[in-house]
Amino acid sequence: xxxxxxxxxxxxxxxxxxxxxxxxxxxxxxxxxxxxxxxxxxxxxxxxxxxxxxxxxxxxxxxxxxxxxxxxxxxxxxxxxxxxxxxxxxxxxxxxx
Length: 97
Known about the structure:
97 residues, 30% helix, globular
């Protein structure tokens, strides 16, 4: 049984666990943007935010680990890789302020 904590209403972050009732699957988010919530797994897909429920938030240390892994992906044009590289740059700039 999957316990749904809240409807996603805005941004969901890297590493958060998401449930999509219509597909009956639970999965890990790579990131979300105007297109929807992007899946982290090998079977890449984008789900509409309105179809997603947040099950569990990812701890910051796990999120950072996943971002570094995504940034090192071999497919140079993968949206997840490009997002992670940009996000890590932004996070580094904030840390240096």
